[in-house]
Amino acid sequence: MIKNYLKIALRNLWKNKVSSIINIVGLAVGMAACIVIMLFVTYEKSFDNFHRQNIVRLNEVQKFPGMAASQKVALSMFPMAPALKAEFPEVKEFTRVKWDRKYQVTYKERRMFLPQVFAVDTGFLKLFKFDVIKGDAHKAIESPNSIAITQQTAEKLFGNEDPIGKVINHYGGDTATFTVTAVMANPPQNSQLQFDAIFSLPGIHQKWMDNWGGNWLNTYLQLADGTNIKSFEKKMPAFLKKHINGDGWKYYELFYLPLKDVHANSADIGLDYLNYQKFDKKSTNLFAVIAFIVLVIACINFMNLSTARSADRAKEVGVRKSIGAQRAQLAIQFLAETILLSLFALIFAIVLVELALPYINNLSQRNLNLDIFNSPQLMVVILAGTLLVGTLSGIYPAIFLSSFQPAKVLKGSVESGKNKGTLRNVLVVGQFTSAVFLMIATIFVLKQLDFMQKKDPGFTRDQIVTVPMDRISDKNYELLKQELSGNTLIKGVTASQDQLGSHLDQSGVEFKYNNQPLRELSGTQLVVDNNYLSTYNIKVIEGKNFSSEKSANGREYIINESMAKELLKDYPKAELSSLIGQRFGYDSLGVITGIAKDFNFNSLHYKIENLFIVNQSKWGFNTASIKIKAGQSKEAVEFIKATWKKLNPDHPFEYQFLDDHFAEVYQADNQVSQIVGILAALAIIISCLGLFGLASFSAEKRVKEIGVRKVLGASVQNIVLLLSGHFIKLVIIANLIAWPLAWYVMQKWLQDYAYHINISVTVFLFIGLVSVIIALLTISFQSIKAAVANPVKSLRSE
């Protein structure tokens, strides 16, 4: 019987080639989208699952005086971890992580720069399950002068030599000698912690052991089994009050994130430097929902086309029922046909996934792969999903087709039914509502991304090359500046401790207005060279820029408009100019020499914060900013590289255009926009496939009616409008439903951005017009084909 079912199923699929191809292609595209998104979601959810489940990361909420709003940060204070372990039985173990980038190490004559190294507590390898393949994991970093390196680092630095016991040197601000005690496996790609070597933290940073003021590292705790995190957090205010002097404890809150949630639940947490491929779970969930919608649209296509062609199977049902076939048997056969079609679609879908994965991996910066033959679990999930899709798609057509009464259908009185036509209309409207909604969402997402990338940030971003510096190369900054400035390719050279577009540090300052009491507050700080503002074309609206010579009044500060308004909030009648010359700063108080126009030094996700800029070259710089001549970028970069090599022969030259840095800042937004756009395109393609199939069926069933109309004088235009009008009406209804839904959702979504576009009615009208045109083009081929057919042939055919 099963063999017979398969034979009949294949025969019917071959007989109805057009509808079969439409169904297979539609289902395949929907399945492929779901498989790719399933791989992406699975990858995202796999982050840090190989570690123990009771590890948490300590985070802070900071609300300092003068800050417009509180901020969450991933950093914490050095003494917190040992104090927590000593005072709370909930804490079983801890480790702190301080990172360094471009860490220079040498072995004999071989020198290399490790992309990232961690200084950690000895509890690091107790908390985290990073495999040690050589050496003793328990003693790997017990000594202050011991270092554990990854397998990749070992191969690059030692080649075929055994690294254990070898001595390597680091030259820099914290020059040190290390003995290699262990070789670790390279961290998995789905680990938020990515490193090239680890060494002992307390041995390097003893002087910070009792500092409860600075936040400059990450803290991880292993909690006792059964610990309630929320209850534990309620004990933190008393803990802070005990250890932080005065009222300083009031400016902090502590909260904990389970390690497995850090990767996807840290979108609102700043200074989150150790979160590899950080990606908001809201975006991941959005992809899953849209992919599911695309698959549902493909299933709707099948139901529509199957019920539309019910009359073609009516006589078959009647004959088989009259010779004893049971309804259940017929239903099983029709369901088997659907499942067979789904299996064909699965094969096509796998091909599509394999073709698309290189592009998806490049876009998402992940390494997704469809290794179903080496992953039985993945194979079972995909096959089970395919069977479910086939069953859900075919269950209604199977019940409907098997319900025909043999006496009626054999007499030719098949009732496709008004209700069945209504259901098809509802499903078509549902398809296009989803497709139109996704098209509108894609347009707004792309417009917001374009707005963020093109909005004037208040400073020059074009033709700026940034070069990272460390404590060694920074000593040659003045020479670098002098050498570069003498060339016509260079328009300006400046430097800073932080790079625009990155999250800048907060710092406490003091302010004294005339004879009023001294005020303590906090703001974002930017330490710069004296020509920084002029190089970046940041406007000074009151006062003057930094002096090239040392000021007689001490340290000079330039504040932004937001900080100026904060300083004058208690003096509503005072002018901004009254702040010039007022005492301001930290340590020995300096003076405010200028007020800069507000500029977006951070991502447009955030409002402009209170900022103060200080000129202190002796504190050192981490980034050189070089403004180059437009149109000669290649020559300018080569000149910068040659000059760098001359001054810093032992340091590799790295550079980045500031525009590219800001592109990285908005990389996650760009990924979301492109993936949503791809899924929206798939939704409209599948919807159009279904519309094409229904238009073909409609034209086929009305062939004699069209012939009669043409004989009576109807024009081709009349016939096309007759066949197209009904479907266009459904698309218009879909737009009227999708518009308010899209308006509501996009309004909510845009609220996540401090600076965003306005919702424009034009977009809705444009998408409405585009959807109608797409639908019209989809069905016009069949409509025109039917309209130009010879009426003699259509009226003569039986």
From TrEMBL:
<feature type="domain" description="ABC3 transporter permease C-terminal">
    <location>
        <begin position="678"/>
        <end position="789"/>
    </location>
</feature>
<feature type="transmembrane region" description="Helical">
    <location>
        <begin position="286"/>
        <end position="305"/>
    </location>
</feature>
<feature type="transmembrane region" description="Helical">
    <location>
        <begin position="330"/>
        <end position="360"/>
    </location>
</feature>
<feature type="domain" description="ABC3 transporter permease C-terminal">
    <location>
        <begin position="289"/>
        <end position="406"/>
    </location>
</feature>
<protein>
    <submittedName>
        <fullName>ABC transporter permease</fullName>
    </submittedName>
</protein>
<feature type="transmembrane region" description="Helical">
    <location>
        <begin position="380"/>
        <end position="404"/>
    </location>
</feature>
<dbReference type="Pfam" id="PF12704">
    <property type="entry name" value="MacB_PCD"/>
</dbReference>
<feature type="transmembrane region" description="Helical">
    <location>
        <begin position="719"/>
        <end position="741"/>
    </location>
</feature>
<keyword id="KW-1133">Transmembrane helix</keyword>
<feature type="transmembrane region" description="Helical">
    <location>
        <begin position="675"/>
        <end position="698"/>
    </location>
</feature>
<feature type="transmembrane region" description="Helical">
    <location>
        <begin position="21"/>
        <end position="43"/>
    </location>
</feature>
<feature type="transmembrane region" description="Helical">
    <location>
        <begin position="425"/>
        <end position="446"/>
    </location>
</feature>
<keyword id="KW-0812">Transmembrane</keyword>
<keyword id="KW-1003">Cell membrane</keyword>
<keyword id="KW-0472">Membrane</keyword>
<dbReference type="InterPro" id="IPR025857">
    <property type="entry name" value="MacB_PCD"/>
</dbReference>
<dbReference type="InterPro" id="IPR003838">
    <property type="entry name" value="ABC3_permease_C"/>
</dbReference>
<dbReference type="Pfam" id="PF02687">
    <property type="entry name" value="FtsX"/>
</dbReference>
<feature type="transmembrane region" description="Helical">
    <location>
        <begin position="753"/>
        <end position="777"/>
    </location>
</feature>
<feature type="domain" description="MacB-like periplasmic core">
    <location>
        <begin position="20"/>
        <end position="236"/>
    </location>
</feature>
<dbReference type="InterPro" id="IPR050250">
    <property type="entry name" value="Macrolide_Exporter_MacB"/>
</dbReference>
